[in-house]
Amino acid sequence: MNVAAVVAWSLIAVGSGFFLAGTVGLLRFPGVFSRLHALTKADNVGLGLLVLGLAILAGSPWTALKLAVIWALALLAGTVSCHLIARYALREQGGRERAEP
Amino acid sequence: MMDWWLDSLLVLGLLWLAWQAVSAPRVFRSVVMFIVFGLFMSLCWARLAAPDLALAEAAIGAGLTGALLLSAYRALLARHEQRLPEPRVSRPLAGLIAVLCALAFGVLAWVLLTVPGVETPAGREALARMDDLAVDNPVTGVLLVFRAYDTLMELGVLLLALLGARVVAEPLRASGPGPWQRPGLREPVLVAPLLALLVPLIVLMAGYLLWAGTSAPGGAFQAGAVLAALGVLLRLTGRVRPTMNSSFHERALLVLGLAVFTVAGALGFGFEGYMLSYPAGWSYPIILVVESALMLSIALTLALLFSGSGGLRGGE
Predict the structure, then answer these.
(1) Strand segments (E) across chain B
(2) Which residues span the membrane (chain A) (predicted)?
(3) Residue A44 lies in a domain
(4) Per the domain annotation, does A99 fall within a domain?
């Protein structure tokens, strides 16, 4: 097992840890906002670390680029859906003025 | 060993999700479980080395059907004022139906397991004859050459499904996703940039899936589903609005796939003597044209099914 593989698997392990933490946060945290916080932050970093590890394992720049695009798309979708859910929740709780825009 | 663990997890997860989808106490939970079930199903197809099916299941089974179910749930909520009525089937009757279904499934499974194997299964036959075709992807070969008649009929079924949905359709305000925004509130700032990034990407993706379908996983159904997802996105963000009646162009696009496929099949009747056999040397361009037409028709049909309207118009 060479250095690259060790680094890659460590990154994947740390990334999985972030996913686990995010899932536990989603299940255990009170309220919409803290749950969203736990979920999106952990997912973004966790997926990023996973992608980084997998890119090292793949060993081809082309595959690494595709993985990076997947991560970027997940970031984009995660950001916007988190924003929309938080905005909706804020408005439901009566924070109408602050929810603009 | 690792694979074995992964597969058992997938199978157990699939069964559990299926059970949750039908037995959840609330409809919303059932819908969410069904969407996750679709994603698991797609993973299972990927594990079974069937990427075409995995793509179609993820795009249509989980994505579009999930969106359809969610919008149907919203329409139900609006009608029943936040509380859905209890299902009217009594528990003993439901149990009886379940037992009968399990019996029927058991008998069918037993028959399938005991039936003697065929000498040359159709799949192996098709793989052996792939060299005669102009396309390299066996799935596309089966769909558009060996089993072209079935695919033609499937297109007819899809069109009939849309017509059926239109026949029982309700006024626009009761069907499909509701209005995008409450009056007096501005659009969230992130929506426009997301659309600006996603729209070209989705079009590119659909084009790639269509083009790659001749030699790699992909094809008209997957590309059409991805394009339909674009329609869903635009409809949900209010970029296109529903209309009661469809325009001439929309009707033409809806039947385009069926029409082009039929004409291509009739060409074979003229040149080769029987339906759906493409003229020698022309099969690659014909398959490409047919696939493109199929993609457009599938995309519009699925988008209109989601929208719950006869047509779509641009603008606010």
Answers:
(1) 240-243, 311-314
(2) 6-30, 42-62, 68-90
(3) yes
(4) no
Judging contacts by C-beta atoms under 8 Å, the chain B residues touching residue A87 are: 188
Residue A74 in any domain: the answer is: yes
Amino acid, res. B108: L
Q: Which letter does DSSP use for residue B179 in this model?
A: -
| Domain extent at residue A10 | 3-92
Nearest CA in chain A to B186: A101
The whole-angstrom distance between A92's CA and the closest CA on chain B is: 12
For B276, the token pair is 């759906």
Query: What's the structural domain count of chain A?
Result: 1
As for the ipTM of the complex, it is 0.78
pLDDT for position B73: 85
pLDDT value, residue A100:
47
User: Which residue from A76, A77, A101 is facing B188, i.e. has the nearest CB?
Assistant: A101
Residue of A nearest to B190 (CA): A80
> B174: Cβ–Cβ under 8 A, 6 or more apart, which residues?
B75, B78, B79
Searching chain B, which residue's CA lies closest to the CA of residue A73? B198
Please measure the distance between the N-terminal and C-terminal CA atoms of chain A and give it in whole angstroms: 52
What is the pTM assigned to this prediction?
0.83
Residue B137 binned pLDDT confidence (cut-offs 50, 70, 90) = confident
pLDDT of residue A101: 45
Lowest-confidence region among B47-56, B120-129, B222-231, B253-262 = B120-129
